[in-house]
TrEMBL record:
Residues 65-125 form the EFCAB10 C-terminal EF-hand domain. CDD domains: DD_EFCAB10. This is EFCAB10 C-terminal EF-hand domain-containing protein. Gene3D superfamilies: cAMP-dependent protein kinase regulatory subunit, dimerization-anchoring domain. It comes from Crenichthys baileyi. SUPFAM superfamilies: Dimerization-anchoring domain of cAMP-dependent PK regulatory subunit. It comes from the Eukaryota. InterPro entries: DD_EFCAB10 (IPR049760), EF_EFCAB10_C (IPR056587), EFC10 (IPR039879). Pfam families: EF_EFCAB10_C.
Length: 134
């Protein structure tokens, strides 16, 4: 059973989105693998400050072309759609936890590239919201 102090610590981390921030920072660090990781992290925190002040969304690892590539891997026969299971798995692998369970095409089990990209970008924006809302 968690102590009161542990509950307060957990609430503090949740309220300030510290876990999400550290997840984002770690992902970026591993993606870019900079020569000087400390300097890189400082730069990312400076970008965070600018994002907070300007209201502009912070850095994101994936852009439209990256999502096109992911979709292409899932649709090697170029059918122009993927299954809901593939959609869900791909978004999970991109680090998106709050997946839309009813995207367009779910009833036919055919998620289009456009729907996949729209949902992925929305999820990635929510994931990187720590840059705008800390």
């Amino acid at each position: 059973m968690a102590t009161q102090r542990e509950k307060e610590a957990e609430e503090y981390l949740r309220n300030h989105k510290i876990i999400e921030l550290l997840d984002n920072m770690t992902s970026m660090l591993l993606f870019y693998r900079p020569e000087n990781p400390r300097e890189f992290l400082i730069e990312q925190l400076e970008q965070l400050k600018v994002s907070q002040e300007s209201g502009v969304r912070g850095p994101n690892l994936f852009d439209s072309s990256n999502l096109d590539a992911v979709f292409g891997i899932l649709d090697p026969a170029n059918q122009k759609y993927i299954t809901f299971g593939q959609y869900k798995h791909a978004l999970t692998m991109l680090g998106i936890k709050d997946i839309n369970e009813c995207p367009e095409g779910v009833n036919e089990d055919r998620i289009s590239q456009e729907t996949f990209k729209t949902e992925a970008m929305a999820g990635l924006q929510r994931r990187s919201a720590t840059y705008a809302s800390l």
